[in-house]
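fold-stage: in
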Amino acid sequence: MTGEPANTANTSARRVMLGMDLPGNRMERLAELAHRAPSTHNSQPWKFAISGRSINLFADLSRWLSVADADQRELYMSLGCALETLLIAADYEALGVDVVYFPSTSDDTHVCRVTVDEQKPRRNDSAPTLLHALPRRHTSHIVFERDRPVAEHELAHLSAAADGEHATIEFLPAGPERALLPRLLEEIERELYADDSFRADMARWIGSGAIGEGWLQAKFSQFKFAHSGAAKLAHTDAELLESAPAIAILSTAHNRRYDEVMAGQAYARAALIAEHYNLRIQPFSAFTANSSGRSTLRQAMHLDSRHPQLLFRIGHGAPATHRAPRRALKDILLKMD
């Protein structure tokens, strides 16, 4: 199945196919599907405003982790993830799209306006079948099967998730440089986790239940994160990275808000491609959490003038048994004047 007519008559069929309870209104349905996108620490930092045939995507600054993501880079990457998921949903519904990035010169929180047109062809790089992976997509936090490689054609498809012009995804070959990454991650995370304000910001977010789990378990996880030693937390993540048969760096030619959004679009597509092949994926934001980490990663991986936006691992492992919670649709929709 590559797409369906862009009307509401087949809404029930789409629900059965995707295994999701989706709104009957097409524009709300697109927003709901975009809302299933990945985001940093499951922050879901977005709002959607529907106006006729257009969906406007805004940053929700109340969901910004102001210490862990001080420069808002991960926030804008998350918004890029929502945008790409929205566009893939439009691909699935056989809709053409017109995308305007940052339509308001005076408001950087207005990230884009997407106008759909059922009379126009789908975009050139449309990927309608990837939407089937959306209900299963999740971030993995388990040790991967170390001796089970990712197939070359799967790596090629994942690399093609980036357009190659604004953003690129490069898988690191085995060797001393890649072997260095787990130790480098451990050093960077030790420094981050030793920062009381960083730990407090993350503990607050975990305790809110945003990552998942019930209230009591969330509070326990909050306490554990706040009081576990920096070395222990960092070592755990280093072991996860070390287990990966494939590690990729997502980078951009420039380092503007637009580039951060484009990087998010590439990651969202890569996450769906990974799920399509029943692969697990996990990003490590510590490498790029601040300018110091990004500079260290750029030098270690010889990225020259390119700007690292995210490092992530790919591999095989059991799927998660639960999904991170999502806000209700009514909580992410804005009314346009």
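fold-stage: in (second)
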Amino acid sequence: MSLQNILNFVFWSFSIVSYFGFRILDFIDMNNLYIVSTPIGNLQDITIRAIKILQQVDYILTENPQKTGTLLSEIKKRYPELCDENKHPKILHFNEYIENEKAYEFMNLLEKGYNVALVSEAGTPLISDPGYKLVHFALSKGIKLISVPGASAVAAALVCSGLPTDKYFFLGFLPKTKLKKEKHLSNLKSSLEDLSRNGLNPTVIFFESPHRVLETLYVLKNVFGNIRISLGRELTKVFEENVSDNLSNLIAKFETSNPKGEFTVLFNLKSESHVR
């Protein structure tokens, strides 16, 4: 065999293996529960892998079926080359109440060999969203769990906060009532002081809704004093805002303007001393 023939053989062999190797990656195994992250505001943050998984699974569990349906339609319009027109996953409503009542039904789908994806309304599932009990149950049944990572408001806000990122303490959403919120934050203060005495000073992160954020700032000031905090708002969207200031100035700002958008609140007692 001539050198040219050998080179041609190697070239075509490599081409065939490469093609079919990548095509194999387009297919997914059976009987899996996929935890799929979706954009928190900007559709361009969807990953290629997430698009393919959401196209190929048999069922999608979601907090908001209408919003997920809109997301799938928009994906097909923007990224047709990644979509399969013949695949139409069935969308099922899923929230913390349904999770308690119908966990066995969802497990039954997986045990029958169907592939299921779990998504939240936006961002990474289970992070201050339902799904923990389903995942726990799936693990106990030997179901394979696969995370499809992507957008997260926690990470997006943290890296833009200017606060230490090596350790953080995520609280999810604070209690809704003022009294419970004060008790919650007072307990947090004691815990942070204990951690600090042992050389640990995590950045605290939590979510807050626009209609409760002003009251929360008041409670924070009452418990921690006039500390400096970071606020992330409308992350990844057109009107995204990341501000860092002391609580007095932020309270004054929101007393004269109507807060809009979901907030991510961050502070670190070690990095910022009280403002006199």
